[in-house]
Amino acid sequence: MDCNVLGDKHDSLDPDKDAMPVTKSKHKLGGSSQKLKTAHKLKAQTSKIVSSFKTPSVCCCVVKELRGHRDGVWDVAVARAGVPLIGTASADRTACIWLVEAGKIVLRYVGHTGSVNSIRFHPSRDLVLTASGDQTAHIWHAAFNVDVVGGQHPKTTCSSDEDIDGGVDAEPEAELEGAVVSSTLRTPVAELVGHGGVVAHADWMPGGEQVVTASWDRTAALYDVETKEQIHSLSGHDQELTHTCAHHSQR
């Protein structure tokens, strides 16, 4: 009898014991599923936000490769609208003007004695500005009558006949993997001096009447193109200046 009673009690207690964990586990499972749903929603929303910041994929391909420099190219510039020319500045101490369609050098400037670090075309005149490791910036003149019909080379004109070594009809100075040099310019229109270190970059101010330079001597300088004189020396940086850029319309 005792065993039966105890057995009955034991049997009656077992369902209660089993019921409690089941109820708790249901609550736990319910809470977990709710958390999972919330986390999933959050993840979906976050993914949408992140995907909205993604930039569209851009497909690029090489159209033309320009070869002719003997060392690294530091800078590239495009001439003003309507003039199909590209300028390059190189560590081989030269700057080159290229005819875009032909992919050939039409003028090589060799007036610098150090690496040519930057190149910029004048906004309206046939002038080019270069900065160099020889602590100077040069302004040089090169006008082109571009005629690509029949593969003719552009006619080059400069400030004086002595500035050019070889004309259009002269033998090319060098032929490097298809790059033909039609003429070589040695003398600048203006040499801008005053820096005590490498001139890393130079740019035309709006209107093209002034030039700004940046140097490793930790200063920037403003020059007058006509007088070739330094107007202002701008100091304040604690380290070398590596670049300068002027606003296209405001001083």
What is the gist of this entry?
By secondary structure, this protein is an alpha+beta fold. The protein has one helix at 2-53; strands spanning 73-78, 85-90, 95-99, 104-109, 116-121, 127-132, 137-141, 143-145, 155-157, 164-165, 175-176, 179-180, 184-185, 190-192, 199-204, 210-215, 220-224, 230-234. It has 2 domains: 1-53; 73-234, 7 Propeller (Methylamine Dehydrogenase, Chain H).
Structure description:
A hairpin with a 4-residue loop joins strand 16 and strand 17 (220-224). It is built from one helix and 18 strands. The chain has two domains: 1-53; 73-234, YVTN repeat-like/Quinoprotein amine dehydrogenase (Methylamine Dehydrogenase, Chain H), CATH 2.130.10.10. Helices cover 21% and strands 31% of the residues. With 251 residues, it is of the alpha+beta class. The chain has a six-stranded mixed sheet, with no helix packed on it. Strands 5-6-7-14 form a four-stranded antiparallel sheet, with no helix packed on it. The chain has a four-stranded antiparallel sheet with strand order 15-16-17-18, with no helix packed on it. The longest helix has 52 residues, at 2-53.
**Widest sheet: strand order?**
1-2-3-4-13-10
Strand content: 25-35%
Shape: extended
The main sheet comes to: 6 strands, mixed
Distance between the termini: 110 Å
CATH T-level topology of the largest domain: Methylamine Dehydrogenase, Chain H
Helical percentage: 10-25%
Order of helices and strands: HEEEEEEEEEEEEEEEEEE
Determine Rg (CA atoms, Å): 36 Å
How many structural domains?
2
What is the H level of CATH, i.e. the homologous superfamily of the largest domain?
A: YVTN repeat-like/Quinoprotein amine dehydrogenase
Keywords: Cytoplasm, Nucleus, WD repeat
Pfam family, one: WD40
Protein name: WD repeat-containing protein 37
Region (Disordered): 1-37
